[in-house]
Amino acid sequence: MPLPFFFILFLFGFILPSGSCQVQEPCPIPYHLDSPDQVLELPDVLTEISGIAFTPDFSELVAVQDEVGILFFLDSKTGEIKRQLDFWKSGDYEDLEFTDDGVLWVLKSNSKLYELKGWKTGEELQVNKHDGELDGEYDVEGLVWDDESGTLLLACKAIPAAALRKDDPQRVVFAFAPVEEKCREQPVAEIRKSNLMQWIEENGMGENFEKYLEKTDSDEFLFGPSAIAKHPHTGHWYVSSARGNLLVVFDNQWGICQVEKLPGKVHTQPEGLAFDAEGNLYISNEGNEKKRGQILRFNIR
Q1: What DSSP character marks residue 200?
Q2: What does residue 97 show for φ and ψ, rounded to 5 degrees?
Q3: Residue 270: which of 236, 232, 223 has the closest Cα?
Q4: pLDDT digits (tens, 9 = 90+) for 94-144
Q5: What does pTM read for this prediction?
Q6: CA atoms within a 13 Å half-sphere pointing along the CA-CB vector of 19
């Protein structure tokens, strides 16, 4: 007997434009997240690296850090800085992404977006700032291009107290439409604590994850998206959380596919995600007093 529509919504707890979602069976991800195939040690200026993205031709990795308005163009095989490009004054920059027209977008935690043209040479750089429309308490940290909807998705690390479900804390993903130059009012996805915990328990992973998700904090939900990327082959959404060191994979209808723990010994603070053309996964980690910032590459299996 098929599951009724309202039960599916309850099970996964996502608010989608289509008003529906599909139940997904667990699908193991094709990466060994405890064993990177390459570790790129970054210079001191990128100790607080916060976001990464490949250029459209995949020739370079571009990075930002959360203190200065500078783009760092990196050799994806060595981590060496090939060039830098100042685009704005200092601020809390969290992520960056390219749209399918080759324009580079940089995200600030207050949801402001910087649209950059002429970044290839930097000689004729044009920057168009889009004022953030979201409450600053959302603390936006993830940015990714959705070619199907023609929007930039903004993954929020937190949520304003007035919007928080006290009995079932949630995180949300909003969509910004470049053509309309505005953010859609309703989120495209809502990730609730009860749904994430239910998936974990139903798949026999409670002992591995419960202590991370049940740990008491301001809203009793130790999951806050710090980065988001779209897999080039499957179309799945990969969402990392530096809080709790988690990686959650969703299908293209935002049904949960997989939940993985990112080992703390390998991932000091996962803040950035990117895929190359082959589908290899890159995770950037902020450094600390004892460890440099790093970009880890995980080859697809």
Answers
A1: H
A2: -160, 150
A3: 223
A4: 999 999 999 999 999 999 999 999 999 888 999 999 999 999 999 999 999
A5: 0.91
A6: 2
